[in-house]
Amino acid sequence: MSGWTKIDGRAVALRQSNVDTDQLIPARFMSAPRSEGYGSFLLHDARQEDAAHVLNRFASADVLITRRNFGSGSSREAAVYALVDFGIKAVFAPSFGDIFQSNAVNNGLLPARLSEDQIETLIDAIGEGDADASVDLIDGSAMIGGHALSFDLDPVWQQKLVNGWDDIDLTSQHNEKITKFRAARFAAHPWALPAT
Amino acid sequence: MTAPQTLFAKLWAAHEIMLREDGTSLLWVDRHLVHEGSHHAFAKLGDRGMKVAAPDLTFGVVDHYAPTRAGEVAADIRRMIDTLGQNARSQGIRLFDLRDPGQGIVHVIGPEQGLTLPGLLINCGDSHTSTHGAFGALAFGVGATEVAHILATQTIWQKRPNTMRITINGVLGAAVSAKDLALHWIAKLGADGARGHAIEYAGTAVEALSMEGRLTLCNLSIEGGARLGLVAPDQVTFDYIKGRNFAPTAAAWDAAVNDWAALKSDEGAVFDCEVTINAAEIAPTVTWGTSPEDALPITAHVPDPANLPATKQEQARAALEYMGLTAGLPLEAVNVDQVFIGSCTNGRIEDLRLAAKVLAGRKSRVPGLVSPGSALVKKQAEDEGLAQIFTDAGLEWAGAGCSMCVGMNGDLVGSGKRCASSTNRNFKGRQGRGARTHLMSPAMVAAAAVTGHLADVRPLLEGRT
Ligand code: SF4
Fold first, then answer.
1. Helix (H, G, I), strand (E, B) or coil at B122
2. Please, which residues 339-398 of chain B have a Cβ atom closer than 8 Å to chain A?
3. A6-165 CATH fold
4. Among residues A86, B172, B175, B304, which is most buried (max CB within 10 A)?
């Protein structure tokens, strides 16, 4: 995965709170291989039931502004695949589902936290339309619908998004430590190994 | 003398291989559980030509797509199950497949097989991995990229979460269960109320819970946004584990119990956040909306969005519309179309016993499905005569798996249909497109079955022991 530092694109507002992973991608689509692309599954049922859904009207949106607890629910990384394959690069919300956030960062999608007030200001500014959005990962700033903001992002995740790091490579450098740890753990606590 | 430590801190320290300068820890994983949904992760591993680092600590199970009723299995479901089988075989992983007597939902069979033990770090590509914390294990769900990482290295990078202690003192009322307790605190704190926290459940009401109850409580931690849930192990825990398939024996057992006895928060240990709940205040609880936080005592009325805090109004209106409910309606007046008993939340033997206690000698007014959490639970329920009670009541007795909790195997609730369900998520479309889910305890599901509407189970249990 390649990293990124800046986005210049278009933002839309998804006015709901608690957009859970079952809404982001209904379970019935999750047996598809990733190579087929997950973009059409994004918020599938909501988009199919409402032709005027914001993501139907603005299919080239890059940035999503939404309310609290976005991505709550299951650990399905497919929810992030759906967003990424649709073309979303950053989501701004007051809070995110815990596992969703890590999944997002692992796939180059920025989960940026703003206060509830900031989010409400942006939602009012964007309304039912879309708006210019630029996001800078390096200094944690954004300009959305004419509003300049700085957002909250864990520095570890910022580095990961910028560098596009792959953890497996990173961890492999510590193989020796891991092997030693395993041996010491099971020597001291033999019960921790599965019996039989 | 060292400062008093939380249980969480002890578990974390026992698994920390290294701490990176940026504050992220590399943790050792003692058990890694995989299921059909792990196919993305195996594909990632395959792309790199890597092998599973610790197949002896990795266990697979068919659950999400497991067929629970006789008949044709759709091709894509078959393919999901076969893919897991191939991955398990080629990587040398012990698989509980459909024919295995130990098959079942991953969070039911982990404890049942003795794979889940106090003091372990357990990961699974499933958010309800928090369930296993009921044993005093550090257990949390991860996404596919992280599953691939664990497969490749048997470790995981994590930022240390904050700690929260939820203390529930007093005694739970008659027919009030761990499910009610969980829905109660989630309604109180919100579906993101414990976001990013490791919760330790404590207090006399928690100590009094059976292992099954503790599993239900920890299972639902994720619905309040928590990273994981914990209950300090005690004699109840040890008694449950002893003699299980993969549990330690002989000298290893004695050493284990010795180590496990130290797994509790020290007197005076400091938590980032403390919440106290009085058990006596909790009533049988049901959800009315599309988030687990939308929960109320069964004696309440459907809320009027206009009376809710401004930030909740829009969501509540949308929820009522989706659920087909009007503000002000007594919850007991809400008719249901069907019922479901099962899932990793409430598909264990004790759950089935409680539901059967309500259903015995009665008929269900609506159709319903009962899917035990595992093949062993199924067998035990049949031996105890519970299955007979369900079928006599007119409910369908099915095979073990995730079943109607998520509908991946085709056990779906129809569009617009209202289901009283012992599961954990009432999200839009969770049990099927357009399905309307009301979460509650298995006893409350049974009450809904025999009355045909959301109902208080307490009068139905009077005189029954
Ligand atoms: S029973 Fe439901 S919540 Fe539990 S693992 Fe299966 S699908 Fe997930």
1. strand
2. none
3. Aconitase; domain 4 (3.20.19)
4. B175
